[in-house]
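Hi team,

As requested, here is the filled-out complex form for the adenosine-5'-triphosphate run. I kept the field names the same as last time so the parser does not choke. Let me know if anything looks off before we queue the next batch.

— J.
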Amino acid sequence: MTEYLPIAVLEGDGVGPEVVPVALDAVSRALAGQGITLEPKALPFGAAAIASHGAPIPDMTLAALDAFDLWVVGPHDSASYPVELRTPPPGAVLRKQFGLFANLRPARAWAGVAATAPDIDVLVVRENSEGLYADRNMTVGSGEFMPTPDVAMAVGVITRAASERIAIEACEAARRRRGHLTIVHKANVLRLTTGLFRDVCRDVAQRYPDVRVDEQHVDAMAALLVRRPADFDVIVTENLFGDILSDLAGELSGSLGLAPSINASATTAMAQAVHGAAPDIAGTGVANPVAMIGSVAMLLRWHGRRTGDSRVEAAADAVDGAVAHVLADGIATRDLGGTATTGAFANAVVAQIG
Ligand code: ATP
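And here is what came back:
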């Protein structure tokens, strides 16, 4: 049984140094309640790593990450880096180098938070390693290129193997949730690529007779998420569609500042809030820490399931329960119409965990 839980911490840029430490605080408190000590190991990343090591993701960080199953990663603000260091973006390097193929992005409404969709509770399972993402879908070179200055092209990649492993993730998640899976594609137009994705998902889903399966074209799905969000549970889709639909779902649930996520392989998981570095509010102490706190709670749940340690899952439940309680009490950061600072909100969560 785990007594110490080592975790790699990359604070990142913008609001990262504000939301990452308070998220670790809350989670550490909940783990302590289960007799487990969180052992965070800070590693250089982002603008601070450029200053100290000359690169946003130094080799020593990549080497050190190898020794950790669990990472907490803040946002990066590549646009602020010297131009020669802006690509590839550090997040893409991490996902690609460590094969973090599954991006799990839940979005749910919270009592006490005004949401466009007050009954939304969905999980977007986004394939994270291929599709049209030019920085991930080639071993050498880029999936985007320009034959002439006036012509730009992109190669989209969909493979049977990557579709199968994400479909399995999604079916397993549906089984843990409300047992409903929606396969999202655009196979009426992108017949071969998203058609293959759809067909593989259909085949995998047949192994899960307890999961109810349906499918939608991505454009219809966007409309239906707004019109009747309560009809959906787990949505599995390819990379670009998943990126867009998960932002939509997060916003429908109240604010991007509420949207958590993890990126996972079979052996490693990275907690990273859906939002970016939010440079417009960085340093002002008003960032909403819920997305980051929720991401670390997801990380614990992933680890608890994988290792069979129910105490770690109980700690995740305690964190989520505390956040729900604080929001229901009307304590809220500015993005939700409240006046609580990042620190005040996080303190309320920690006090609630007890
Ligand atoms: P990226 O491309 O890295 O995702 P972005 O510029 O598209 O970044 P964000 O950095 O997420 O997007 O910022 C989008 C908007 O959401 C900004 O107005 C920002 O202030 C707001 N925002 C993002 N995260 C939070 C948060 N945790 N709390 C409050 N507001 C946030």
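Two things worth flagging: The mean pLDDT is 95. Residues 32 and 38 are 8 Å apart (CA to CA).

Thanks,
J.
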